[in-house]
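Q: What would this chain look like folded?
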Amino acid sequence: MASLLEWANLERGKPDSAVLPFAPAPRETLQGYVYERVRDLILTGDIAPGQSVTINSLAAAFAVSHMPVREALRRLVAERALTVISGRSVGLPALSVERLEDLRRVRVEVEGIATEWAAKRLSDADHEGLAALVGNMNRAVADNDVKGYLHANRDFHFAIYRAASSDTLLSIIESLWLQISPYFNLLHASGDYQRANREHGTIAAALARGNAKAARAALVADINGAAETLRAILTARATDEERAGVSAAR
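A: My prediction, written as structure tokens:
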């Protein structure tokens, strides 16, 4: 057994240990839980454009104190997923045509790569799951079930992206979806869900054949189609607001 002197000599030869900023485990766990739950609400479109949520309502919904809610919302504001509306409420940041175009360009590249990578890794069970989700979205369209469609849409895309087996790529895609996916709510009235799900069917079929290029092309068409529809909606809204401003000024 090493003597105390030998242990001391060994310790002197080691590099200095980092002093890590540990926080109490329960608080961190609680903040992480709230962060993940609010992030899921954003990703699945449960927080829609024009809606706001308060610290009080979230604390009550999750049965927690205000502190972990504030910390979780601070993270999401820093990630540009939410913006502060007042001292105690947050909502979705406004989406400009310029920001929409920037997100579209990046999504096409990043999500396209993930789809190609996933084509070689999806199992038979994965393919069955994707086909089932396409069916769920078709039923949601027929039933006019916006939330059901948005939930299945998110599950469909992320089943593919997770199959790419890249945590780094998945993290980037999640960040992009935090900024754009709530605005998929606006596509319902335009009839875009039907168009999008035709592309989903094409993606699923191409992946089932192992055709990575065709799957990526359909994915790109899906992203571009949604962006084109959103651009038209945003442009029309801006025009209406400008006309309303002119009328108010008269």
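Residues 14-25 have pLDDT under 50 and may be disordered.
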